[in-house]
Amino acid sequence: MVEHNVDLEIEEAYALLKVLLLHNNCKVIAEKMPSAITVQHGSLWGISPKTAKKIVRFSLSQTDSGTRISYSSSLASDWKNLTLIGSALAVVVAVFCWWLSTDLATFIDRQGHSYWSWIGTINGYVDYSALRMFRNLALALAVFLVVIIVLEAVVTVYVNLRVGVFAEESLKELRERSLK
């Protein structure tokens, strides 16, 4: 939990925080006036710490000089599940494409038995140019998917490490508005 202090009474801080959150397209999923509010923010398709779907919990407590606000942020389970399932499917398709590509390459080189050689067989004859095209296409798709899987892993790690950015910016804006 990260804490911030604002020079407002707890009711004012709560009301202003709620207005800011609603203005930033948050959906209130739980609230206990004036001491806590939980919101959902972001999209299932978001790929940055600010746009990824997350749950942010704010707790407010009165202090002698104003209000202490603490928060915790976590990625929404459906965002994590979609990322995991999408990556797993990409791995399966990449492995399949790699297998197809290596099987066709072996057949082209050795003209021996191949599981996938039927792809390039037309009227009982092997069309080697078609097999090369399929081999190259499968290899390109496998490489493309591996790059996407690596990028998805980088995005996931980055978003996990910086999931609190939205809450930080919201509290910074709250502090700025409280000074006006």
Indicate the topology:
Blueprint: E1 2-6, H1 10-23, E2 27-32, E3 36-41, E4 54-63, E5 66-75, H2 77-110, E6 121-122, E7 125-126, H3 128-161, H4 165-178
Antiparallel strand pairs: 1-5, 2-3, 3-4, 4-5, 6-7
Describe the structure.
- The chain has helices at 10-23, 77-110, 128-161, 165-178, and strands at 2-6, 27-32, 36-41, 54-63, 66-75, 121-122, 125-126.
- By secondary structure, the protein is α+β, with helices and mostly antiparallel strands.
- Strands 1-5-4-3-2 form a five-stranded antiparallel β-sheet. It has a two-stranded antiparallel sheet with strand order 6-7.
- A hairpin with a 3-residue loop joins strand 2 (27-32) and strand 3 (36-41).
Question: Descriptors for this entry?
Answer:
alpha+beta, 5-stranded antiparallel beta sheet, two-stranded antiparallel ribbon, 7 strands, 23% strand
In short:
The chain has helices at residues 10-23, 77-110, 128-161, 165-178, and strands spanning 2-6, 27-32, 36-41, 54-63, 66-75, 121-122, 125-126. The protein is α+β, with helices and mostly antiparallel strands. The strands form two sheets. The protein has a five-stranded antiparallel sheet. The protein has a two-stranded antiparallel ribbon with strand order 6-7.
SS element count, helices: 4
Tell me the CATH architecture of the largest domain: 2-Layer Sandwich
Separation of the first and last Cα atoms:
27 Å
Estimated helix fraction: 40-55%
Shape annotation? rod-shaped
Can you count the beta strands? 7
Q: In the CATH hierarchy, what is the class of the largest domain?
A: Alpha Beta
Determine the CATH superfamily of the largest domain. Answer: START domain
Pairing-aware structural class of the strands and helices? alpha+beta
